[in-house]
Amino acid sequence: EVVVNRIAAGEIIQRPANALKELLENSLDAKSTYIQVVVKAGGLKLLQIQDNGTGIRKEDLSIVCERFTTSKLCKFEDLTQIATFGFRGEALASISHVAHLCIQTKTAAEKCGYKATYADGKLLGAPKPCAGNQGTIITIEDLFYTMPQRRQALKSPNDEFQKVLDVLAKYAVHNPQVGFVLRKQGEQPALKTPASSTRADNIRIIYGAAIAKELMQFSYKDDMFKFELECQLTQVNYASKKSILLLFINQRLVESAALKSVLDAVYATYLPRGQHPFIYMSLTLPPQNLDVNVHPTKHEVHFLYQDEIIERIKQQVEAQLLGSNA
Ligand code: ADP
Ligand code: MG
């Protein structure tokens, strides 16, 4: 059973960057305004995330690593109404099957914090009282020590660090109200954004002044298909050798091959060869229109009226690009 659980967990947690994504979403769901990430060996040796959110109640520490344990569903109907994709209570459980996991946390209501360690979905010993501020520190060590072949396949800490940086950068752009810090242990921050920042400022801090200067911002609300779009895009991205696309749907970083290929085609008709855009898109859809059968950790997303919605997004982007040429 342990082996089966580890294999299942290894499908959910594929590398440090996607463990980080789950942890970031938990911290954001917990209403954090400050999130700090520390890594060693690209997150393979150490991946630690500290937040100042609500914290986890002591009595919940024994169950947060059981599969399908979530505080985000109260009744069955919530399943169709839930605004986040992260609703299945599998992230922490999975991590505990493939790494050493320690949770230190304090809620506003409790006098002291508690520290708990986990292995294979189970709490090891009773949570120990400890000092600390309100919020949660999740420490993951030796990722995939239970799966030597997987560990072996992720050879390059540098590649893993780049992916970790990429995920954090995108969440920082999407959540400018939250302050983010990412550092390699013992080093200066590799990325740092202030709390109560703006999206444009975070794009400048992270992706550079040249891109930020070219940004066109627009929003669009569609009554027919009931979606909202927030967008920042450049016509030309002089500063980068490749396209940069940040796509969030209902606050979760996702990929949509269908939308991407339409955007690529739009830009191909506007841009000389070899020039690439920066695109940030945040799409909000009625939660019941998202395909809840797609596993929450799958990046590729599908939704109802996808073709129609993508066509409308295309029209909006074209109008922006045309407008800026006029
Ligand atoms: P899910 O996010 O799908 O509920 P997770 O396995 O990611 O499942 O987390 C399990 C539960 O642990 C969450 O529902 C939440 O109650 C709690 N939790 C995890 N991380 C945090 C955090 N940083 N702050 C507060 N609560 C947290
Ligand atoms: Mg989660």
Automatic annotation (TrEMBL):
One of its GO terms (molecular function) is ATP hydrolysis activity. It is found in: Nucleus. Residues 203-322 form the DNA mismatch repair protein S5 domain. GO terms for cellular component: MutLalpha complex. Keywords: DNA damage, DNA repair, Nucleus. One of its GO terms (biological process) is mismatch repair. Belongs to the DNA mismatch repair MutL/HexB family. This is Mlh1. The chain holds residues 12 to 337 of 658 of the full protein.
